[in-house]
Amino acid sequence: MPVKRNMQGLQFCGVFVRVETKENAKLKAVHKLKEKIGLFASQKQEIWDAMNLRVGKKWLAYGLRRIKESEIKPLGLSTPLLDHIAKFRKDGMKTDHWFKTLLKVWMQDVNAKNELNEDVLLSKYIAEPALAQDLRDAFYNFQKQAKDYISSETAATEALLSNLKRAESISTFTDGGIIKIHAPLSYIQKCLHRYGLINLEGFPRHVSALVLQDDELIVSWFAGIIHRWIRWFSGVDNFKELQLMFVESVRKSCIRTLSAKYRMYEKLTEKRFELDDHGIPMVEDFEATIKPLESSYSFASTDEALMYGISNSGLFVLTLSRVRVPTRQFNCFVMGCQSASPSMYVLHVKEKQRFPGWRTGFSSSIHGSLDGRRIGLCTQHVKDLYLGHISLQSVDFGSLVR
């Protein structure tokens, strides 16, 4: 079969179709042990870095306090070293400025501009040299042993995989091959970056275009992304990995957007807003959240999912243009809606490319000419557009011209 010889699989209607062999017990055990050791070593490295950073910050605070104490010589708190340094202090220079000058001279001496950030500077030049040599040697020896083990197991895994591939190439389709359907996770991550939910490093960030909108609309926009992908990918074999992406990217980006709006800590934001009730669940609550969503889907409410390629039904975000002006009031631009439009919105299209539509996971066919158009909408229809219950086909873009 052609799909069996293609390692990338067959690309069809938003998913990958691959033929894979059944999991090998040896390969699974090697992967599991290697990942555990790698995770343990990374955790120890994080603890080591955090400890050194804390020591460095305490040294910085102590140095500033001692410099300030040098001004009160009558109390007898000065030291010979501080008295010697104080000779180079210019007349009229404030204490904080003087301390910054000392730090600047020291940073030039150690060539600090080559370091990644100030955390590395404090750890490398202040905290670590102050630690016992035996402690430093033991830690770096442990990290070296862990790295050597992981690299050796990687080589062994590659050799095992090559043997499995050779065995697969001479086997027939009935020898244990399994057809699996996978969601394109790498491209979905690129979409998240294009939508503004994650940065270049893959970490979630707040969506600034949503900060000025109501809380319900902010949550609905993020929930709409999850609802669309659940419609398309609920039956794929790597849906568990997609769930982790939902939580690590979409849910955390929603929390950070609400935190940026209210300037709150993320933990307080998560407690204040019940995101699970709006369809943005944690991993352990996914099954309970998906069932009511799937049961509520109908042909009328899921035109994006069932009518692939429907025009003007990709992802977009609305930003506030202005609130209602008494001299000129508009009704909602959705055809058949007579509700007043409390605000004017500017349409920002996130999916302008029509083809190849399979990569996006849902239809991506909003025409580029609609980008930047101003429309008036009631709150309910903004929510429906965000959740994907209706598409931009229902919006009369000529209402503003009349």
Task: Describe this structure as you would to a colleague.
This protein has helices at 2-5, 25-69, 80-86, 95-109, 118-130, 133-169, 185-195, 215-233, 239-262, 266-272, 286-296, 303-306, 379-387, and strands spanning 10-12, 15-21, 177-182, 316-323, 343-349, 374-377. It is mostly helical and 402 residues long. The strands form two sheets. Strands 1-2-3 form a three-stranded antiparallel β-sheet, with no helix packed on it. Strands 4-5-6 form a three-stranded antiparallel β-sheet. Helix 8 (215-233) packs antiparallel against helix 9. The longest helix is centred in the first third of the chain and has 45 residues, at 25-69.
Order of helices and strands: HEEHHHHHEHHHHHHEEEH
- General shape: flat
Number of strands: 6
Return the average pLDDT rounded to an integer: 73
- Using only CA atoms, what is the Rg? 29 Å
Domain tally? 2
Largest sheet features: 3 strands, antiparallel
Portion in helices: 40-55%
Unreliably modeled segments: 1-6, 169-174, 298-309, 355-363
Number of helices: 13
Beta content: 5-15%
How far is it from the N-terminal to the C-terminal residue, by CA?
A: 59 Å
Strand order of the largest sheet: 1-2-3
Structural class, by secondary structure, is mainly alpha
